[in-house]
Write a structure and sequence with these properties.
single chain; 299 residues; alpha/beta; OB fold (Dihydrolipoamide Acetyltransferase, E2P); Ribonucleotide Reductase Protein R1, domain 1; six-stranded mixed β-sheet; five-stranded mixed beta barrel; 7 helices
């Protein structure tokens, strides 16, 4: 058997790249279905290559084993990612709640988050960049500004991606595929923002792994909605907000949800401008959702 990495999967067939860079089209053995395991782009695997189209021989090879995963993401369905690149742009108007959910998702999966602001050449880009840096000042996430259209900031972004297996995510239309084209000289299909509805046209239909020297990137279908499917104790939500950490233990009540409790140090910090109010407001929205899901977990 040979070792390789799944770089794409379509219609029950998986393309695997071996250690020498050669690619093979394979089928997954039925045992994976019995074990309820789905091969994912990014999986490190053992496989048996096919024998070509000669008479009496198996044309397609077989996926034999999926090696232990370092990480697994179900939405998008990829494996062994180390960095989640969250792409936003001045247009379409940023969905900051989606950004917050993706940051939570990244930390729950032990992925390093990177926030990328594309289209920095647009007229409102300066305002968007200033707001982004203010909202996420204490969130322990690097912010990179780039323009895929004119190539600005792409070299600095490449440096941030080196040694990582990256997954690009975010709203449709923010330019993820265009950005990959600019970074690595690809020729992926790209789309424009609909002038009528100001929403992105989703042009990436399948996850695919690209490798460029010491940078690996998984491009995934764009999406404009992410739900935090896992039900967990609402008091744990605060752990995914690094800007709250300096105030832990200073609240009047313990544990403190940082919701509406009197004597809450986090609420006081927000009033004093140490935590951005919009970021706290979205946290309260998610806290309400988490509390409802927790109450209904046995229904």
């Amino acid at each position: 058997m040979m070792r390789g990495v799944i770089v794409r999967g379509r219609g029950g067939f998986y393309t695997v790249r071996d250690e020498a860079g050669a690619e093979y089209v394979l089928r997954a053995k039925k045992k994976f279905r019995r074990q309820r395991i789905s091969p994912l782009v990014g999986d490190r695997v053992l496989f048996t290559p096919g024998e070509g189209k000669e008479e009496g021989k198996e044309e397609d090879g077989w996926l034999e084993e999926i090696l232990p995963r370092k990480s697994q993401c179900l939405r998008p369905p990829v494996a062994n990612v180390t960095m989640l690149c969250i792409v936003a742009a001045p247009a379409p108007e940023p969905d900051w709640m989606l950004v917050d959910k993706l940051l939570i998702f990244a930390r729950k999966q032990s992925l390093r988050p990177l926030l990328i602001l594309n289209k920095c050449d647009l007229p409102k880009a300066g305002e968007t960049a200033a707001l982004t840096k203010a909202m996420y000042a204490g969130a322990e996430v690097d912010v990179k500004t780039v323009s895929a259209g004119i190539g600005e900031g792409t070299e600095a972004l490449k440096d941030a991606l080196r040694g990582e297996i990256c997954c690009f995510s975010g709203q449709s239309g923010v330019g993820k595929s265009t950005l990959l084209n600019a970074l690595f000289g690809l020729s992926q299909e790209t789309g424009d923002i609909s002038r009528k509805i100001q929403r992105g046209k989703n042009t990436t239909r399948h996850a695919e792994l690209f490798t460029f020297g010491d940078i690996s990137v998984i491009d995934t279908p764009g999406f404009s909605l992410l739900e935090l499917d896992e039900v967990f104790d609402p008091v744990l939500l605060r752990e995914y907000y690094p800007e709250f950490a300096p105030y832990e233990g200073q609240c009047r009540f313990s544990p403190c949800y940082h919701g509406s409790e009197p004597g809450c140090a986090v609420l006081r910090a927000a009033k004093e401008g140490e935590i951005h109010p919009a970021r706290l407001e979205r946290y309260h929205t998610l806290l309400t959702d988490c509390r409802q899901a927790w109450r209904e977990r046995y229904d």
